[in-house]
Specification:
InterPro entries: DNA/RNA_pol_sf, Retrovirus_Pol_polyprotein, Rev_trsase/Diguanyl_cyclase, RT_dom. Pfam families: GT4-conflict, RVT_1. By secondary structure, the chain is α/β, with parallel strands linked by helices. Helices cover about 40% and strands about 10% of the residues. The protein has 5 domains: about 5-180, Rossmann fold (3-Layer(aba) Sandwich), CATH 3.40.50; about 190-365, Glycogen Phosphorylase B (Rossmann fold); about 540-620; about 695-885, Reverse transcriptase/Diguanylate cyclase domain (Alpha-Beta Plaits, 2-Layer Sandwich), CATH 3.30.70; about 890-965, 2-Layer Sandwich (Alpha-Beta Plaits), CATH 3.30.70. It contains 34 helices and 27 strands. The strands form 7 sheets. Strands 3-2-1-4-5-6-7 form a 7-stranded parallel β-sheet, with helices on both faces. Helix 12 links the parallel strand 11 (about 290) and strand 12 (about 310-315). The N and C termini lie far apart (about 75 Å).
Length: about 1000
Amino acid sequence: MNQAANMKLTFLTEEWSQSNKDGFSILIRQLAIELSKLENVEIGILIPNASTQDKEDTKKYNIKVFEPENLTGFEPVDCLQYPPEGFSTDFIIGVGYKLGRYGAAIRKKFHCQWIHFVVRNAEEEAMFQNYPEAISEGQKEHTVEVELCEKADLVVTVGHKLNESFKSALRHCKKEILNLIPGIFEEFIDENQEFRDSKRFEILVFGRGNTEDFELKGLHVAAEAVAQLNAEHDLTTYTLKVVGAPEGKQEKLAEKLKSHMILPSQLIVRSFYKERRKLAQLFSEVDLVLMPSGTEAFGLSALEALSAGVPILVTHNSGLAEALEKVPFGSTCIVDSNANWADAIKKVWKNLKTRFQEVDMLRNKYKAEYSWNVQCAALVEKLKSMCPELENKCDSQDERDSSPLPLKQPKVHFDQEETKKDDHRKMELKVVSSGHSPSTSGKDRAESATGDEDGIPLINHKRLTGVGRTNHVQKGQTRREMPDEAPSANTSQAIGKVTKFVQLAKDLVAPAQLKDDAITYEIIVERMREQLKPERSALVARYEFDNQARNSGESLSHYVATLKHLATECKFGEAMQTKRLRDRLVSGIRDSKMITELLKVKLADLSFDLAVQKCLAIEHANKDFQVLQGEQGPGTPINKPDTVKTGEEEATSKPPPKAEGSRGLGKLKNIQAWIQVKEDAWPRFWKARPVALARKPAVDEALRELEAEGVIKKVATSEWAAPIVTPVKKDGSVRVCGDFKVTINSQLEVEEYPLPHIDDIYASLGGGTLFSVIDLRHAYLQMEVEEHSRPFLTINTTRSLFRYQRLPYGVASAPTIWQRAMDQILQGLPGVFRCLDDIIITGHTIEEHLERLVAVLKRLEEYGLKANREKCKFLKSFVEYLRHVISAEGLHQSPKKVKAITEMPKPQDVTQLRAFLGMVQYYTKFLPDLATHLAPLHRLLQKDVKWLWGAAEQASFLVVKEMLLQDMVTYFTEDL
């Protein structure tokens, strides 16, 4: 080990002044430069065939250059394992699988320590590569990299994504792993990007210098998105620049791209850029950089673009996306699905000026969040702890400086007057909002999070001078103070509206603040527009349009108006829109007379207007006919007995017991829910999530209904608070649910209580001939929560804090709590199967069935529970439950589910095969010797088996499908 006071770190690298195809040389360069700024640290690089430019550039940073011996017959990179004479170091650093291999050899020869940086996951990338044996090669490389990590003295991963992956891979050896998030690359940050107002929108995407990584880098996704945008025929031409084609094979890559619908006029293909100077120039040519990769360990090329100040869009499956999520405006750069790339690109184009302003702030915030200096200092401190002799040598110097690793930079002196001016500029709107300082107590936090009883944040009216920026008082003027007396009703109303919009603006730019210089008026307006009037995805609108059928009782005029409204958001184009409207009208009217009349007209002659005219005429004629004949509503003659069909028999039945009572929510008597938390549980308080303005009335109405029914109760303060989610139900109303997974679910002691399985039906329903199903209305909400458990179930909404008085959905322990209660309520009743909110009743005869049904209804009434009348079914010959059909004959497969399985196409990969096997597994009891028949398919799931779908696999696939189509029944027996 070196005995000098300074710590010596040496990087293995192939390039310094130029970039390599993997992009790792920029990471090595920036790391070396940043580490060289620290005191008591000497940086060197071991590089083959160093150029004159390399040597001149490294001198700027006091970085030493070591060239390995140049051995005949060896590739330059292989010479790295033979450093020159006089070489010494304390730590050798290998970045990536290729360079990391030489770390062990150098460690053994020079008695230093070896640091291995992990920069990719070859096994994951191989799933998106299309050359022969890509997956097996990826697995081999990944296995070797894991072994390198096991042998290294220290492992450092680049980004959270890789950190989680390799923590799992190295869990068996308990290897300590550090995580480094690459910061902004300084050599690009001087490139000042400017907004260009042009009808030509330039988009850049990087390849990796070979065609095998075409899908891995998502080049097909980029091409299809640009082609889709140009097909919309707006005034903008979108051009895709693909950089990274193999040298001399640009034409081959261009042809492959054109096969994905992009036109030659929309495409530019270039070879790989080695010189970073040219790369910086390239960034100045484009308006947007894409990273649509299938997977990306981190995404250094996109980070280079961000460093240069260019707007970026990145795949959600990348380490950079995880880093961006924690930075203001970072989430706007993430695309979560391949189907959304075109919309995301268009959104950037429509707001390009704003995006350039945002990217400047994003770059600064990212730089502060992921500081190179802070992370490098932490790394060196870790290395010092690994070498006590180095730490002792440096102690005397460290004691003279409070900063353990100060930068080698002169002190910066700030002008006091300028500082005062900056402070004055930050004296802006003072709002007591949902944010809180670290010193705020739990009670105060809750009050500040909810404001007054109406949910409006409290505001200091005397300091309310504008939205976002304060108008400064000119010299010689005085600011007129607001009167101390209470404001008028109109003034209070106006202040309340302003306050709500201010709070909305603050939420939309969070975690940034309105007073930040980068938060301009244009950014606030754009955020407001996106929130209050968001642009819908054309794909979603078209899906809704294609599935919009005429509802029962809906007038034709209303249905036509609905179709026209949906069509405006589908972006069909004028020529296509009328045809699509006509086709949707014909397929959605659900009226045989209207459809028959329309089919009489030739397709070429049938316009949308003519179709509407003919359908309206038929609708009016039907109404006139009903007036002449007299109104007759649907119903059953009073004296006609009800009948129930069971197979071929038609049995006259006694009427089922009359259900009485109100439609309100029931209240379970004598049983309450107890929420048990872990001993080390600590309160978690979340702010209320913003609600879209269009959905807010529905959310408020849902909260009022829950409050009126006693499900929730408004409270002023709480230590616990979960945000809410508001899914839209089929009828257009909103369901309010607490998002308890972020608060209490991880803190719960969940009881191990068995939930019913389909096999349990055998024991409960054996010998039954008719079946009834009782569905309990909002089952969990009928159970009260005991007093001490209620604080855990508090939700934070834009109106106020509310505390559940009843057991809500979404609590991890709710199913077991409810199932235990149902077992207790219905115990001792034969022929009854209970599973959560459903109760199935049967009997050997109709009389016995009705007796059991009455007994269940009485038991429910005794405990105060209420059923959902619309969802209950009585005296049916069969019922479908848990993917099975239950009848007098026994237990059948569900025809719908069997049809779905038998119509599944041949699996193309392991994921599709697992989906098929998972669905088949539900019907194991109907398929004798299933394991034998599935053996060839299960073999493909083994870790070391290459995917190859041959004759044996196809035969197994077809045999299992054929077995499912046979009419097999599992019979009930009295002995079960």
